[in-house]
Amino acid sequence: MKIASFNINGIKARIEALTNWLAGADVDVVVLQEIKSVDEGFPREHFSDLGWNVETHGQKGFNGVAILSRLPLEDVSRGLPGDDSDEQARYIEATVVGDQAVRLAGLYLPNGNPVPGPKYDYKLAWMERLRHRAAELLALEMPVVMLGDYNVIPEARDAAKPEKWVDDALFLPQSRAALRAIQWQGWTDAIRIRDPWAQRGPFTFWDYQAGAWNRDDGIRIDHLLLSPQAADLMVETGIDREARAGEKPSDHVPVWVRLAA
DNA sequence: ATGGTCGAGGTTCGA
C-alpha cells in the first residue's frame, strides 16, 4: 500500500497537476491539504470517474483537507478532537483496507505566523490537541500513518537557510518541542530515516517568492509519522521533488511511504 | 543586500 501526502494549494488551480501526478505516482491513497474549497466545490466526480474514492473536509476560501483512495475507506471522521468551537477544516481520519487495515490521519497544522499573537497561540493549542489524539492512535496498536503539512521545521538541517527561520512560527523552539513531544511518543519520521545522518535536507516546500525553487532554498515541513506497527511494514519512502518543476506547481511536493500492507 | 508569488474571492488576506 503506497500512501502519500500532498499540499496542493487550491484544488481548482491544481486539478490538472494533481491528475497528472496521480496518473504516474502509483499511489493507493493520498491525503490532500489546502484544498481551499467547500465540500460541494470539490471536483468529486472528476476523481471518482478516474476510480478514486473521495472524502473531503472543506471550508470556504482557506484550509480544507481530503482523501483520495483506490482502496475502500472506512470509519471516516472529520475534525481534530479536543475543541468543539474550532471551525477550521484541518484534519480527517479514515481506515484504508488493503491486505491489512491502516488508519490514516491527514492533517494541515496551523502556520502560526505572525508571532506572537492569536495565530501562534492557536497553533500551539492545536498541537497539544494533536498530541492527545496521537496517543489515542498509538493505543490502537495497529498500523497508523499520521501525515500531512505539519508547518514545523524539525531541525536546522531541515532548512536550506535555517537563519532565515529563527523568528518564524515554523521553526521557533516551542513549535519544534511540540512536534518532538508527539514524535517521542513512539512515532517514526519516515522521510528522515531514509538518510538519518544527512547534514542538509531533503526538502518538501519551496516558496513561490524570490526564486526559492531555483536556488533550492527549501524546507522540510511535510511529514509522515508511523506508529510502530506501521513502521514494521515500511518498505520504501520518498519525495516526488520533480513535481515542483512541473507546470503550475504547488509550492509543496508529495511525500510518500509504501507499506507491506 | 535586495526583491518579492501565488490562490481564492471579491478589491484583501493567508501563506
Automatic annotation (TrEMBL):
<feature type="site" description="Transition state stabilizer">
    <location>
        <position position="151"/>
    </location>
</feature>
<feature type="binding site">
    <location>
        <position position="252"/>
    </location>
    <ligand>
        <name>Mg(2+)</name>
    </ligand>
</feature>
<keyword id="KW-0378">Hydrolase</keyword>
<protein>
    <submittedName>
        <fullName>Exodeoxyribonuclease III</fullName>
    </submittedName>
</protein>
<comment type="similarity">
    <text>Belongs to the DNA repair enzymes AP/ExoA family.</text>
</comment>
<dbReference type="GO" id="GO:0008311">
    <property type="term" value="F:double-stranded DNA 3'-5' DNA exonuclease activity"/>
</dbReference>
<feature type="binding site">
    <location>
        <position position="34"/>
    </location>
    <ligand>
        <name>Mg(2+)</name>
    </ligand>
</feature>
<dbReference type="GO" id="GO:0046872">
    <property type="term" value="F:metal ion binding"/>
</dbReference>
<keyword id="KW-0479">Metal-binding</keyword>
<feature type="active site" description="Proton donor/acceptor">
    <location>
        <position position="149"/>
    </location>
</feature>
<dbReference type="InterPro" id="IPR005135">
    <property type="entry name" value="Endo/exonuclease/phosphatase"/>
</dbReference>
<feature type="site" description="Interaction with DNA substrate">
    <location>
        <position position="252"/>
    </location>
</feature>
<dbReference type="GO" id="GO:0006281">
    <property type="term" value="P:DNA repair"/>
</dbReference>
<dbReference type="InterPro" id="IPR004808">
    <property type="entry name" value="AP_endonuc_1"/>
</dbReference>
<dbReference type="InterPro" id="IPR036691">
    <property type="entry name" value="Endo/exonu/phosph_ase_sf"/>
</dbReference>
<keyword id="KW-0460">Magnesium</keyword>
<feature type="binding site">
    <location>
        <position position="149"/>
    </location>
    <ligand>
        <name>Mg(2+)</name>
    </ligand>
</feature>
<feature type="active site" description="Proton acceptor">
    <location>
        <position position="252"/>
    </location>
</feature>
<dbReference type="Pfam" id="PF03372">
    <property type="entry name" value="Exo_endo_phos"/>
</dbReference>
<feature type="active site">
    <location>
        <position position="108"/>
    </location>
</feature>
<feature type="site" description="Important for catalytic activity">
    <location>
        <position position="222"/>
    </location>
</feature>
<feature type="binding site">
    <location>
        <position position="7"/>
    </location>
    <ligand>
        <name>Mg(2+)</name>
    </ligand>
</feature>
<keyword id="KW-0464">Manganese</keyword>
<dbReference type="InterPro" id="IPR037493">
    <property type="entry name" value="ExoIII-like"/>
</dbReference>
<feature type="binding site">
    <location>
        <position position="151"/>
    </location>
    <ligand>
        <name>Mg(2+)</name>
    </ligand>
</feature>
<feature type="domain" description="Endonuclease/exonuclease/phosphatase">
    <location>
        <begin position="4"/>
        <end position="252"/>
    </location>
</feature>
<feature type="binding site">
    <location>
        <position position="251"/>
    </location>
    <ligand>
        <name>Mg(2+)</name>
    </ligand>
</feature>
